[in-house]
Design a protein that fits this description.
By secondary structure, the protein is mainly alpha-helical. It is about 50% helix and about 10% strand. The strands form three sheets. It has a three-stranded antiparallel β-sheet with strand order 1-2-3, with helices on one face. A three-stranded antiparallel β-sheet has the order 4-5-7, with no helix packed on it.
């Protein structure tokens, strides 16, 4: 496992910033290729180009990650081992700085046991083999293979590229939050309607919580109640919503209501169940803070201190 490097000197950061920026650039280009056509499968040329861009983003992401967590020397060939930083920067500016092969970088990354599990490591290895065959040996792919490939490439973006880049920059909580900041508005809108991406985001949201419901913005089942955000479109209700159990479908914490304005509305507010779509009202006691969905106010008897006394 790499030894974490807390800070970088100015020269190392310059190299790091360039590599990270290029990793993100290739990621953007890969996504453009994937979402460029709305059909059920990729064209072969589109698939090969997307693979190349993803591979480049992964390799550069590995390098940026190792610079950030270890040192600049961790990605360089042995010929640079004893060179002072001034000489390394001169080589960098002249395009003569030689880095380790992807295979060597991958092995260092895999040794970091907290980063990728066995499933993701296998995907990295399989993707590397596929990319080599597709690019160098003109691998022929049947329509069914091209259909499945859309999902495999999205998996690589979500579970390999994004963990590397967001481990470097911890400003982002979900893949969609990262993409919304890195893609232009039209590409992001297209991405969150791209079915392979949506299906993967459903899985990711479910991995992080048992309470995943329908998002009121994108209408996908990707809204995670625990962290109050949609893993697909990045809708966030952190400062707005509060949740109670639905009186119709009984789903826990599925009815969202505006807790900021309920007090000025006689402690009653319209709610919306993110699970079944019903719209019960919600009462929140101003004394004890207990909240409950209801259709008839008589249902509130004994729900909290105020109603018990009423």
């Amino acid at each position: 496992m790499p030894n974490r490097q807390p800070t970088m000197d100015a020269s190392t950061k310059l190299v790091y910033d360039n590599i990270y920026s290029n990793a993100v650039m290739f990621l953007r280009r890969a996504i453009k290729e994937l979402i460029a056509h709305s059909g059920d499968h990729l064209e072969r040329e589109q698939a090969v180009v997307a693979c190349i861009f993803i591979q480049m983003s992964i390799e550069l992401g590995f390098k940026a990650y190792l610079i950030k967590t270890c040192s600049l020397s961790s990605i360089l060939l042995k010929k640079h081992k004893d060179q002072p930083i001034q000489e390394l920067m001169e080589a960098f500016e002249q395009g003569k700085l030689k880095t380790k092969s992807f295979e060597d970088l991958k092995n260092i990354i895999i040794a970091d046991e907290g980063l990728f599990d066995e499933e993701r490591i296998q995907y990295i290895n399989d993707f590397q083999d596929y990319r080599n065959q597709a690019v160098h040996f003109h691998l022929n792919l049947a329509p069914g293979d091209l259909f499945d490939l859309r999902y495999d490439l999205v998996y690589m973006l979500v579970h390999v590229v994004i963990p590397i880049l967001t481990e470097i920059n911890m400003d982002f909580e979900t893949p969609s939050e990262f993409y919304e900041n890195q893609l232009d508005k039209n590409d992001f809108k297209t991405l969150i309607k791209f079915r392979p991406y949506v299906e993967e985001m459903k899985k990711v949201a479910a991995e992080h919580s048992r309470l995943v419901y329908n998002c009121i913005e994108c209408e996908e089942r990707t809204y995670n109640v625990d962290n109050e955000m949609c893993y697909c479109c990045n809708l966030q209700f952190t400062d707005f919503g509060e949740y109670v159990t639905c009186i119709s479908c009984k789903a826990p914490r599925s009815v969202i209501f505006d807790h900021n304005n309920i007090a000025i509305n006689d402690n009653i507010m319209n709610g919306l169940c993110l699970n079944c779509g019903e719209r019960p009202e919600v009462f929140k006691c101003p004394h004890c803070g207990v909240a409950r969905a209801f259709y008839d106010k008589r249902e509130l008897k004994m729900v909290c201190c105020e109603m018990a006394e009423a």
